[in-house]
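Appendix B. Chain record.
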Amino acid sequence: MAKVAFIGLGTMGYPMAGHLAGKGHSVCVYNRSTDKAVRWVEEYKGTAASTPAQAAEGAEFVFTCVGNDDDLRQVVLGAEGVLNAMQPGTLLIDHTTASAEVARELYALAAEKGVGFLDAPVSGGQAGASNGVLSVMIGGDQDQFERAEPVMQAYALSQKLIGDAGAGQLAKMVNQICIAGLLQGLSEATHFIKQAGLDGEKVFDVIQHGAAGSWQMVNRNRTMLKGEFDFGFAVDWMRKDLGIALNEARSNGAQLPVTALVDQFYADIQTQGGGRWDTSSLVKRLSKD
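Structure tokens predicted for this chain:
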């Protein structure tokens, strides 16, 4: 078993770090709000550090899962960042959904110290993290991926090395682009069902097994029909992710008209006070109930 550090105990990081501890790894955690780190230690019997660097001392693998590019740079490159404490031959694995640019930047800076780096954003939401069945999209070197893969199996159902540094983040952008368009279609379908006076549960029970079926339909159709959104992947987080994708598209010339439109629909949800609602709340724009 390995000695690991986990930086960032948010909705995803908290259970992911827990799965690592549950598989027998020696886990030291750091979180900006210390009360959550204390609670994690009480639940999983690991240890907590007062700074990212302290958590990373002596760790073979250091995991980060924070909010955005700026947060990531702070916990990795700041005065008390993990890279100041990591030794040559260790490996930094970043699960933040961030830009491909910051992934390439950190890959290069880590390499200067003889430290490996993988950008490894995840998909599967809170349920996937809690159940240890996340999908991980990875950018970096083949040898480092092979080192990390057995450790990440603690919380991952599927892992795939996509390409060089930054490729994991680009793949996550593809993931979010797909989800945004899908949820708008599912929202319109839900609205149509209500306007047509159909039994929504019966309709979705049939079509989810055909060509229209998707994870979102299977897991969200009932709550969308009921107008329940106080759970899941928050609109605020989705807008952050779509902003990253749209910025990348402006750089590489990709045309994302539907994604840009759905991003603005999510902005409408935010103005309704739904920033922390699940992303399936897009249907709220179409209905008054």
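Further analysis of this model is presented in Appendix C.
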